[in-house]
Amino acid sequence: MCILDRYGEYLWSSDLQFGFKKGIGCNHALYMIRSVVEYFTAAGSVINLCALSTIYSGVRRGVILPVLFAVYVNSLIEMLRHSGYGCYVDNLFVGCVMYADDLLLVSASIHKLQLMVDTCCSEAIKLDMKFNASKSQAIRIGKSHRTDICHICLVDELKYLGWYVVSAKCFKVSPPPFWF
């Protein structure tokens, strides 16, 4: 008997984790990001996105079942949800999107984005993981999308789930280079 058949109902992960779920794919994660960015930029806000690149310490790729990994790292999402940082639509937290181990933080404040990064780093230590600062990037989307006041590496294009999200006045993606 498969572990998932027997214990699957107990292996829960957040709705903000789009990986390892039947019928859910990258397109759902990207749609959520686009919807959140468009919601806030339509109201005149600037949105900050930060992709954190994971480095595994104690947990090695391929060693743990993917679904168990999603449950294992779920505390990252829950810590962010309870921090009060990040974006909310009404009372719904939409401050991060995770697809497997690809984490994207979403905040209207560059300062709170940094606090979200700090929260993730603290929680990652508890999980025996860390984030690769040299591969983690951030972009700003909105009317005044350029700034130099952040310690996070701001770029013009941020790669997430194989797509390039572009720093512009509105949500814009570039397809992966292999698309024609």
How would you concisely characterize the structure shown here?
By secondary structure, the protein is α+β, with helices and mostly antiparallel strands.
Description:
The chain has 180 residues and is an alpha+beta fold. It contains five helices and eleven strands; from the N terminus they run H-H-E-E-H-H-E-E-E-E-H-E-E-E-E-E. It has helices at 3-7, 26-42, 66-72, 74-83, 110-126; strands at 47-52, 54-56, 88-89, 92-93, 96-99, 102-107, 129-131, 137-141, 157-160, 163-166, 173-174. The strands form four sheets. It has a four-stranded antiparallel β-sheet with strand order 5-6-1-8, with helices on both faces. Helix 4 runs antiparallel to helix 5. The longest helix is centred in the first third of the chain and has 17 residues, at 26-42. The relative contact order is 0.19. The mean pLDDT is 83.
Largest sheet: 4 strands, antiparallel
State the end-to-end CA separation: 44 Å
Could you give the count of β-strands? Answer: 11
Order of helices and strands: HHEEHHEEEEHEEEEE
**Radius of gyration from CA coordinates:** 16 Å
**Helix coverage percent of residues?**
25-40%
Total of DSSP H or I helical runs spanning 4+ residues: 5
Strand content bin:
15-25%
Which class of secondary structure composition applies to the elements?
alpha+beta
Uncertain runs: none
- The strand order across the widest sheet is 5-6-1-8
